Amino acid sequence: MAALAESMRGDHPARPVLVLSNTPGAGGLAKAEARGIPTACIDHRPFGADRARFEDALNETLTACQPDLICLAGFMRILGPGFVRRWPGKILNIHPSLLPKYPGLNTHARALAAGDREAGCTVHEVTEALDDGPILGQARVPILPGDTPEVLAARVLAMEHRLYPETLRRRAAGAPLPVTLP
Questions:
Q1: Would you say residue 61 lies in a domain?
Q2: pLDDT under 70 in the chain at which residues?
Q3: Domain count, the chain
Q4: Which domain range does residue 90 map to?
Q5: Which of 1, 98, 106, 108 sits CB 3.0–4.6 Å from 152 for a disulfide?
Q6: Residue 14, Cβ neighbours under 10 Å: how many?
Q7: pLDDT for position 47
């Protein structure tokens, strides 16, 4: 989130209108407030298993600020089909693997266990299927001898901070996609 917010200055065609979290006290909220970006928090826990009510609350908050795009960054809740259908083609996400490989969790450990020679990250459009939307950008990093999931995750995260802002810039400007970074 911070890398996206930092990039949306100067000639960038997008501007942040809200940082929304489902975790009270999330570090991203304070970072957004320090940049003068409006924030909101809708804690998912009081909704229990009622995902629809939680997503209705998210939708109400988002609708009020009328975003052109919704960029997920560290939002670790699966959004249901009903929510995704309300924002067709407008939700972007970054995932720490070279999709379609390794959707879901534990991507770095899975890449290492498979003996892959490279890993990376993917910006994709969110659809009703988990980590399955159209690919808007990818960046690759080598897997090095002795890598652990944590060491690999740090290298991938550095690429995420380059890829997501560039993909957002191009998407907001209507420029050609996908983005490919080495």
A1: yes
A2: none
A3: 1
A4: 2-172
A5: 108
A6: 18
A7: 96
pLDDT given for residue 21 in this prediction: 96
Find how far residue 30's CA is from the centre of its chain: 18
Residue 103 CA: distances (Å) to CA of 40, 98, 99, 148:
28, 9, 7, 19
Contacts of 148 (CB under 8 A, 6+ apart): 112
Question: Is residue 70 situated within a structural domain?
Answer: yes
Query: How far is Cα 68 from Cα 116, in angstroms, rounded to an integer?
Result: 37
Residue in 62, 132, 58, 127 with CA at minimum distance from that of residue 95: 132
CA dist., res. 122 & res. 78, Å (int): 17
Return the amino acid letter for 39.
Answer: T
- pLDDT of 55-101, one tens digit each? 999 999 999 999 999 999 988 899 999 999 999 999 999 999 999 99
Q: What is the CATH number of the domain that holds 109?
A: 3.40.50.170
Whole-prediction pTM: 0.94
Omega before 165 within 30 of 0, i.e. cis? no
Q: Is 26 inside any structural domain?
A: yes
CA distance 46 to 12: 37
Other C-beta atoms lying within 10 Å of the C-beta of residue 120: 26
Catalytic residues: 95
